[in-house]
Every structure is written in structure tokens, then in C-alpha cells.
Amino acid sequence: MDQELISQVEQYVNGSDDSQVDSISEAVTCQSVTLHRLVEALGPSLTNVDVDVRVRGTRLLSGVLQTATSLTLNGMEVQLLVDFYCDRLKDRHIVIPHVLGGLWALVSYHSLPSGSVRQICTAVFSEIHMQGISQGDRRYFYNMALTFLENQVYEEELKSFAADFVFGFIQAMDGEKDPRNLLVAFRCVKAIAEKLTFDMFAEDLFEVISCYFPVDFTPPSNDPHGITKDDLVLSLRHCLTASNKFSKFCLPLLLEKISSNVNSAKLDSLETLTACTRTYKAEDFSEFSEELWRAIRQEVFQPVNDNIVEAALSALESIARNMASGLITDSGSSNTLEKFLHIVTKECVTHLKEPSLRLIRPSGHVLHSVASASDPTCVAVVNAALPVLLNKYTETTQGAHQRKVLEVVLGLLKATKKFSDLHDGSDAWNSEALAVSYCPDAECLLTV
Predict the structure, then answer these.
(1) Predicted pLDDT at 239
(2) DSSP run (H or E) holding 182
């Protein structure tokens, strides 16, 4: 068998028979040939002075590892292969694709010994200029990085050199344009943000992904990969919202893009802003509360289309809910919420008092969204707006104006019902009783 194996290897390395990869892989899988014997047979070609011979030899070894997926290797064998491939990363450029393919096979199908993750990452970051290799070869790297990040077995080792890994990854991802690679890279960034300490590189990590926002991608009609713009949008959004350490960079970016003349950019920014409220803290929004309100007000009071208005109101409700939920864990959030509510309700109540009631409907939508966010925001909005609305209803004689006021009042009363159970059903929080307590004429309003 040794002579037959040597003959097969020579035929492949000499370029006379590429089918030998399958034959040798089958022999290794069936254990009629050991990996040790294959490496011995490949020895002269793996170290040959002729680079073309080294390419063929490395390609054969990596091809066998990629094909013989059920092959069982012990820790020492895996380590020897890791050592070999990491050393080969120093070889000529045309050898690198096959080295990365071999490393990917080891990472995919075998358990790496302790220290190998750091060894592989250090070698890749120091020896490869990622922007200078092909899309497929870069994909090997992203897939390896994702495996290291998502496999709990490697988590502690990865944390031991987190700063080096994050810095190396940022440099490797910089300038990536292929949508297939970006989907994997975005998953890597999300995992980094959730699992590793990256404070010193937070701005750099944000910048390497923020350049893709908002996503501008139209897949070719014959795209065999089936990647859509929505795939990229959602994957990028998961990155931007993965950690509140991105907040001081992300919120200004979203504010800028909300003011864009491109409707898709507005919508994406508002939906991303809503997603931010699930991971960012109340204090993260505090610094930008006035700017956020101005941006949202613009989209509601001067609407471009219904989808953008709906997204703006959803973002407003989510921000208010975030600030209110912060009251439980952070006493400082009380001032943040009060400041935000004051800004919003003061302007809306001003519009409720206008004789023309020109902006009463959008103001009503805003008040309803904030009131629906939480019990504290509901109390604040109702106390600020309901007396004004009921008085406006009773003092106006125009039926059209009364109907506008009624729509807003009923919207607020509907919002109160979400939280009435928190007050034991008492009249102090019964929506109809609340309205009547502010204005005796409210009984007729509620029966109209």
C-alpha cells in the first residue's frame, strides 16, 4: 500500500491525475492509509524548493482533511498539523489558499488542543494581508473566527487574548465588500460585542461596521447565493445594537441618517433606533434626548409616508419604555425620564391649545405612544394632556374640532387600560372615572 500511496501522491503532485484526492481521502477515511503515512509520502513535496510542487502537496493534504470529515485525529496529530499550517502561512502567496483551507478543516472537524486558537489567530493576523486574498480565502478566516467565538470550548482561551483578537479582527475585516463574507463577519462582531472585553477598541470596532450603514445592496437577478438586502440589514443591525458600548457612536449616526432624504435610510435608522432600546441603557439616551425628540417630531409632524411615521412612533415609545425601565435599577434615570417627558409633552400640549388644532392628530399619536410605554409615562402624559383636551372639548363649538379632540382623548384612555391592573382597579386609575374627575362634561364625551 505504501508504494501505491506514493505513486498516487506523485501523480497528483506532478499534475497528471487530480482525481487522486478522492481516492486518497477514501483510503484515509477507511483507515487503510493513516494520516501519518500520507504526511510521510507528501513530505518531499511539502518542503520542495519548487513553489508549484509545494502548492500541489499542500493542496492535496488540505483536500484530504476537507473531504475525510469523519477522520479521527488525536490531540498530538492535530497540534502537529496546526504547527505545520501556521508555519506555512509564511510561504508564498499562492500557497496561502490551501493553508487556510487546511486550517479551516481542522477547526471544523476536530477539537483543537489548548493554545491552538491563539496560535492560529496570531499566525493569520501577522502573516496575512486579508485585503490581498480572494473572497473564498477570506471566508475561511471569517468562518474560523466565528467558530472560535461561538464554540464555548474556546471561549476562555479567546478571552485570554481578547484585545489582540479584536484588534486583529478589525484590521482583517476593514474594507470587506463581499455580501457572503459580510454576513459571517457581522455575526463575528455581534459575538465579540457580547462575549469579549473590547472597551479600548469600541470606536474602532464600531467604525469598521458603521461604514455599511445604511445598507445599499441590490442582489443580481441570477444570484445563486440568495442573499437579500434584508439579510444584510438585520445582520448589521444586530451588530450595532449588540452592546451599549456602541451607543455614543451609534446614536449620532442614527440621528444623521434619520434626516436623510432617502426614505429607506430613514426607515432603517428608526427601526435600528428601536432595536437599540433593547440593549442600550437609559443614560445612553439621556445625552441625546432633545436631538432624538427633534428627529422623531420631524417625521411625525411632517410625514413622508405612513411606514416612516409608524417607525418613528415605535422608536419614541421604545425610548420612553427604556427610560422608564431604568427607574428600577438606576435612580438617576428618574431625571432622564422626567426631562424627556417634559420636552415631549410640553410641545404636544402647546399644539392641543392652538385654536386651529392643525397638529392635534400627530400630537395625539405622539402622546398615545409615550403613554403606552409604561405606567410612569402614562401617568405623566395623562396628567399633562387630559385636562387640556377635556377643556378644549367643552369650550369648542365646531363639531370637526370636537371629533379631533375626542380621538385623542379616547386614545389616551385606551392607553390607561394597559396599566389599570397595576392600580387594583381603583377609581383613581379607571379611565372613565379619571376623565370625569378632570371635567364633569366628560360623561357626555365618553358616550358620544
Answers:
(1) 98
(2) helix 179-195
Three cell numbers written together for 140? 475561511
Whole-number Å distance between alpha carbons of 192 and 202: 10
Between CA 402 and CA 395 the distance in angstroms is 9
Give the end-to-end CA distance of the chain in Å, rounded to a whole number: 95
Mapping DSSP to helix (H, G, I), strand (E, B) and coil, where does residue 151 land?
coil
Amino acid occupying residue 176: E
428 pLDDT tier (thresholds 50, 70, 90)? very low
Contact between 326 and 282 under an 8 Å Cβ cutoff? The reply is yes
Return the amino acid letter for 110: H
Neighbours of 254 (CB within 10 A): 24
Question: Residue 124 above 80 pLDDT?
Answer: yes
Q: At what angle do helices 96-109 and 116-127 cross, to 10 degrees?
A: 160
Q: How many CA atoms lie less than 13 Å away from 287 in the CB half-sphere? A: 11
Measured distance CA(245)–CA(193) in Å, rounded: 8
Q: Show Cβ contacts of residue 335 under 8 Å, excluding neighbours closer than 6 positions.
A: none
Report the sign of the C-alpha dihedral through residues 387, 301, 341, 369, in that order. Answer: positive
Distance CA(423)–CA(375), nearest Å, equals: 10
* Non-local CB neighbours of 400 within 8 Å, separated by 6+ positions: none
Give the mean pLDDT of 75-95. 96
The amino acid at 267: L
Give the cell for residue 327.
427607574
How many other C-beta atoms lie within 10 A of the C-beta of residue 400? 8
Q: How far, in Å, are 24, 68, 85, 220 from residue 43 at the CA level?
A: 15, 20, 14, 45
Lowest mean pLDDT among 86-90, 250-254, 413-417, 440-444: 440-444
- Among 149, 206, 139, 199, smallest CA distance to 172 is for 139
Tally of residues, the chain: 448
Mean pLDDT of 55-69: 93
